[in-house]
Design brief:
single chain; alpha+beta; 2 domains; five-stranded mixed β-sheet
């Protein structure tokens, strides 16, 4: 496929995700299943968000020092709780969580091969969900979570045996496949950091702007002391911060790479794309707080393209997807 054809396909998929309905397999994500009568209380003591009162939420698992072990999406199904986590970490995370079970009635299993995450986005998500449901056996109930970022929609957790049929049903219904490249563009446009790319085991969630992953009213969880100290004593100020960069020129820079101010490294650029919505090169970077203000001029380490800090998100969220 030529570059022009690739660009046109990306534009069509991007448009569908914001004004129609697009779908993709979130293959970069794995799924853990936690079962047992004590599972929600047990998870609530580990994770940053309130999984006792919320049946679906975004959360992080931290070290006692407040650094991220992983982020995750938590979905309670009634019979168990699904944890959507980075696929490359799924097996290790399952083993680590299993090692934290003592007398509780809790069991953890990596079911990534059996349960696949199917993402739908756009205002036609409700119609897409109907197509998925009609493709499944009548007695099969699947779990889902509503999505607001990077585009409003839903993620459905489909048994692997029925996954191909769900994709075929969406295609026949006129939904648009969303390729990985366009999904990445949407993610960066929305200013959504990805674990193991824009944040890692050295990241404190507040540095990455993950306040939505944290409950400030729930009881204790691992790493809470650090989060509360930053919130109350430092008034939310962190040493470094995730920012958006808008770059001059047409070429997308290689990532990761350092970003400089007056020749001195002040941060690291970790994701970069050419925005379909803005027709400009944009990037996510984590920089020292002294260089995080909108309008600050920075320079990637390689090349001679200037960058300027801009507020996140780059592109405002589309309207909520009805029926999701």
């Amino acid at each position: 496929m030529t570059n022009q054809n690739t660009s046109e396909a990306a534009a069509l998929a991007h448009k569908a995700a914001r004004s129609g309905v697009a779908f993709r397999h979130r293959h970069e994500q794995g799924v853990l299943r936690v079962t047992g009568a004590d599972r929600r209380a047990w998870l609530n003591g580990l994770l940053t968000n309130d999984v006792l009162t919320e049946t679906s939420c975004y959360a992080a698992w931290l070290t006692p020092q407040g650094r991220m072990i992983t982020d995750m999406f938590v979905v309670d199904t009634g019979a168990g709780t699904l944890l959507e986590v980075p696929a490359v970490l799924a097996g290790e995370l399952a083993r680590r969580l299993d090692g934290l079970i003592f007398a509780e009635d809790v069991r953890v299993a990596d079911v990534s091969a059996d349960v696949l995450a199917l993402e739908l986005c756009g205002p036609g998500t409700g119609f897409g969900l109907d197509s998925v449901r009609h493709s499944l056996p009548a007695d099969l109930r699947v779990s889902l979570r509503a999505v607001s970022l990077p585009a409003p929609g839903a993620v459905v957790y489909v048994p692997a045996q029925q996954f191909a049929g769900a994709l075929e049903a969406l295609t026949h219904a006129g939904a648009t496949p969303l390729d990985d490249e366009t999904a990445e563009i949407l993610r960066v446009e929305a200013g959504v950091p990805r674990f193991l790319v824009d944040m890692n085991e050295d990241t404190i969630p507040l540095e990455a702007g993950l306040d939505r992953a944290i409950s400030h009213t729930k009881g204790c969880y691992v790493g809470q002391e650090i989060i509360v100290r930053i919130r109350d004593r430092a008034h939310g100020r962190v040493a470094r911060q995730l920012v958006g960069l808008r770059l001059d020129g047409a070429d997308v820079p290689e990532v990761p790479q350092a970003v400089l101010s007056d020749g001195r490294q002040v941060g690291r650029m970790t994701s970069a794309v050419r925005s379909v919505a803005l027709d400009a090169v944009i990037a996510l970077a984590t920089v020292h707080r002294d260089f995080s203000a909108a309008g600050t001029s920075l320079m990637p380490e390689t090349g001679d393209t200037a960058a300027v800090v801009v507020p996140l998100p780059f592109v405002a969220p589309a309207p909520d997807a009805p029926g999701s």
